[in-house]
Specification:
Cytochrome Bc1 Complex, Chain D, domain 2; 12 helices; Cytochrome_c_Oxidase_Subunit; 2 strands; mainly alpha
């Protein structure tokens, strides 16, 4: 046996005890890392599922009784334009996810929805649903995707309890609303065939819902622009000053567009009186 010769060193021992195991290949190392990663992710997912079951509650939550009634109305009257899941249909109706109950109260409660036809602006018309049905539709859309909600409670303040509400509301109205709705709340024309509607018949809830949802060209007045208390001040001014006090600036109802209409009326009446007076004097002479 030649254990000491270089040429034969270890030859018989290598054959006797076997070759040394070589280092794992790069492919085997990558495969092992991938297996460990999949196992870790599976374990993390299992732990999350066990300790956070509420994460999957949204997909399987039950609608309230009012929302179920609203869903039945929605499926019969709204699904063709807004889709089965309320995400809208291209060219027909917008996505309702996130618009909230406030948008439904304004659009459906004023008869603007359902629309009779596609045009520049949805026109106000007699509502197709009563107040209870509007609330059911609003509740369904709210539970479907969330969004702004008109608060419950009185939206018009008592001037005797809060004497500053009327004055503050008038200031807010002049700053934020008169450029479109005019100083008397009669509305006015906008660009591209659109218009700002009259506020004469708008209810406090409709006004509050419009401020929250920003329909048509109207901007959204979130709580960071106008606080809920300021919104109530503004509604108090509209309800008690513009709607109940029909003629705050004159003796006759001339549309409440400001001094122009009264000036034109006085001019026309004056011209007629002067003309007849001149004719009478000429006839006498």
């Amino acid at each position: 046996m030649t254990f000491d010769t270089p040429a034969g060193r270890g030859g018989p021992l290598k054959r006797l005890f076997g070759r040394r195991r070589g280092a794992p290949s790069r492919a085997r190392r990558r495969l092992g890392s991938a297996v460990r990663m999949v196992a870790a992710l599976t374990l993390a997912g299992g732990v999350y599922t066990v300790f956070a079951p509420g994460a999957f509650a949204e997909d399987t939550r039950q609608l309230s009784a009012a929302a179920q009634e609203g869903k039945a109305l929605f499926d019969n009257s709204c699904i063709s334009c807004h889709g089965r899941d309320g995400r809208g249909v291209e060219g027909r109706g917008p996505n309702l996810i996130g618009v909230g109950a406030a948008s439904v109260e304004f659009q459906v409660g004023t008869g603007r929805m359902p629309m009779a036809r596609q045009e520049a602006q949805a026109e106000e018309k007699p509502p197709q649903f009563d107040d209870a049905q509007v609330q059911q539709l609003a509740q369904y859309v709210q539970e479907l995707g969330g969004g702004p909600v008109v608060p419950e409670g009185e939206l018009v303040k008592d001037p005797e309890a809060d004497p500053e509400a009327m004055a503050h509301g008038g200031e807010l109205f002049r700053i934020n609303c008169t450029s479109c709705h005019s100083f008397g709340g009669a509305g006015g024309a906008l660009s591209s065939g659109k218009y700002a509607p009259s506020l004469n018949d708008a209810t406090p809830r409709q006004i509050y819902a419009a401020m929250l949802s920003g329909p048509q060209n109207m901007p959204v007045f979130g709580d960071n622009q106008l606080t809920p208390d300021e919104k109530r001040d503004l509604i108090t001014y509209i309800n008690l000053q513009l709607q109940e006090d029909k003629d705050p600036g004159g003796l006759f109802n001339l549309g409440r567009y400001g001094p122009i209409t009264e000036g034109v009326a006085i001019f026309l009446v004056g011209i007629v009186i002067l003309t007849f007076s001149a004719l009478w004097i000429a006839g006498k002479s």
